Amino acid sequence: xxxxxxxxxxxxxxxxxxxxxxxxxxxxxxxxxxxxxxxxxxxxxxxxxxxxxxxxxxxxxxxxxxxxxxxxxxxxxxxxxxxxxxxxxxxxxxxxxxxxxxxxxxxxxxxxxxxxxxxxxxxxxxxxxxxxxxxxxxxxxxxxxxxxxxxxxxxxxxxxxxxxxxxxxxxxxxxxxxxxxxxxxxxxxxxxxxxxxxxxxxxxxxxxxxxxxxxxxxxxxxxxxxxxxxxxxxxxxxxxxxxxxxxxxxxxxxxxxxxxxxxxxxxxxxxxxxxxxxxxxxxxxxxxxxxxxxxxxxxxxxxxxxxxxxxxxxxxxxxxxxxxxxxxxxxxxxxxxxxxxxxxxxxxxxxxxxxxxxxxxxxxxxxxxxxxxxxxxxxxxxxxxxxxxxxxxxxxxxxxxxxxxxxxxxxxxxxxxxxxxxxxxxxxxxxxxxxxxxxxxxxxxxxxxxxxxxxxxxxxxxxxxxxxxxxxxxxxxxxxxxxxxxxxxxxxxxxxxxxxxxxxxxxxxxxxxxxxxxxxxxxxxxxxxxxxxxxxxxxxxxxxxxxxxxxxxxxxxxxxxxxxxxxxxxxxxxxxxxxxxxxxxxxxxxxxxxxxxxxxxxxxxxxxxxxxxxxxxxxxxxxxxxxxxxxxxxxxxxxxxxxxxxxxxxxxxxxxxxxxxxxxxxxxxxxxxxxxxxxxxxxxxxxxxxxxxxxxxxxxxxxxxx
Length: 706
Fold this sequence. Notes:
- By secondary structure, the protein is mainly β.
- Helix content is 9%, strand content 55%.
- It has a 22-stranded antiparallel beta barrel.
C-alpha cells in the first residue's frame, strides 16, 4: 500500500510540474529559430531498420521507434539502458544478479539471459554465441558516440536472421558529419561515477574521419540485500557464512574506442571495448560475492562498400565484419565458511574463461527497375566459434543418491581445462539468402513481402517470411497490417554445456520459433499532435528450457519444451502545445501466458507507462522531466512469493542546448523521489527479496567543443 501511495504522489508531482511547464511556456517568447528546434529534438522522421533502406517512419512496414542523439541528451542518458526505457512496449529490467546486466523485455517476453532481442551496431550483430545474448559480462554501453537508435518491436528474422525474435535494436554511431569538430567531455556523479570522453569528426586529406575515446569507472549503487541463497545453506548446515545483509557488487572500469573512416563508396569502422573489475552483482550462485571480478574485451571491425548507382536501377552493398570477444572471471560462488560435502574455508571458487570470434561476409542490393517495385536481395555467410576455454576451481561434483550432484572441496584451485571444463571449443557455420519486395499495389497501398532461409551447420535449416500491408488512408492517417515469423538459434550453453551440476546441453534441440500478427495506426490530427496505436498477438513454440532428467538427482537437460502466447497494445502520443514545450507519452499493456496451462508467464510487467516533458525555459536551455511506471508483475509459475511491488521513478535533467556555444552543461537527477524500486529474481531461493535498483542519484556533465 505504501508503494502505491508513493507512486501516486510521484505521478501527481510530475503532472503538476508539467502543468507549470505549460503555464510558464505560454508566456514565453514564441520566436524560436528552426535550427534550435532541430538541436532540441533531432530528426526522427525516417527509419532504416525496417527495410534496410531509408523510409518515412509512419510508412515503414514495421512498428518502429527512432531515438536521436538530441533525445539522448535531453533526458540526461548515461547508458543505453536509459535510452531504451523511452521505447513503447520495451521494459529495461535487471533480473539476473550476475553483474546486473540488463534484460530488455519486449512485449512480455522475459527470460533469464534475454537472447530473444537482437542488438545490432551499425547493422552488425553483437550476439555472443555462448548464451545467445550480448555476453555474460556486459558492463554497460555509453551513449556519447551514438547518433541514433532504431528499434522494431516484433519479428525481424526475414531480414536479420537469428535472434531477431521479439525485437531488433540498431545502434548507429556518429560519423564525421555528426561530430563536426572536436569535443571533450566529463561527467561525475553518484556512486563514485566518473566518465570522460574525447571525439573528433572532420576531413583528413581525402578521408572523412570520426574517432571516439571514452573512459569511465563506478562503484555501483551498493544497495543492501537482506537475504541471499547462502542464508538458506546456513540454516541447513548450521553455518554463518552468508554475507547478507550486505551490498551488491556493481563496480566496473570501462574503456571504449572507435574509429570510422570513409572515402567515396568505402567505409571502415573498428572498435575496442574493455570492461575491468566488473562486480558480480548479487552473486553468480545467488550468494553475495564482494570479491569476485570479471573482465571482458571486445574487438570489432567492418569494411563496407556501398554504391547507390553501380548500374541503372541498382543500389549495392558488400560488407565484411569481424568480432572477437574474450571473457575472464574470478568468482566466489559461495562465501568463505560454506559447508556442503566438506568445508570451504576460502569459499567455493570458480574461474571460467572463454574466447569467441565471428566472421561475416554479406552482400545485398536494391533494384528499382520494375515499375511500382523496390526489390531487395541478399546473401551471406558467417563463421562463429568458441576457440578457447580455460577453467580452474576448488571443487568437484560428487553424486549423492537421492540428492544429486553436490560440490565437494578439493582444497585448492585445480586447473580442469583439460579434464572437466564447462564447455569444449565449438564451431558453427551458417549461410543465408533473402528476397524482399516493396510493391505499390495501388495508389496509397504498399505491400512488403519478404522471405529468408538460413542454414546452420549444427541444427539445420529454417525459413521465415514476413508480410506488411501499409495504407495511407488519408494525408494524416496511416494504417498497417503486419505478419511475421522469427527464430532464435540455440546458444552453445543450450547445445554443448558439460560438467554442470544444474543443466546439461543437448545437441539435438531445435531453434525457438515465434509467429506475430500486428495492426497499427498512425494519426496526425493537427500539425503539433501525433498519435499512434498498435495491437499485437504472438505465439512462441519450441521454447528452450531445462527439463529434469529421468533421474531427478542428475540435474536437467535443455529441451524444446512448452509454448507461450501473448497479446497486448501500445499507445503513443506527442504534443507540441508551443514551440518551447513538447509533451510525449507511451503506454504498453500485455499479458503473456503459458500455452498449455494458460497460467501467467510472469516476470514481465502487465503495464508500463512513460511520460516525458521537454521545456525550453529560456534561450539555449532545456528542462526535461520523465516518469516510468512499472506495474502488474507476477511471479513465474511455481514461485509462491507475493507479486512484485509496482514502482514509479521520476528523472529530471537541466541542460544547455549547445548550438554555436562551445560549452554544454547538464545536471541530472535520477529517481528524484527516492523510490524503493526492485526487480524480480528468477530463483526464489537466491534473492528472496528481489534485486534492488538505485536510489536517488545525481550527475553533472560538461563538454567543450574546440
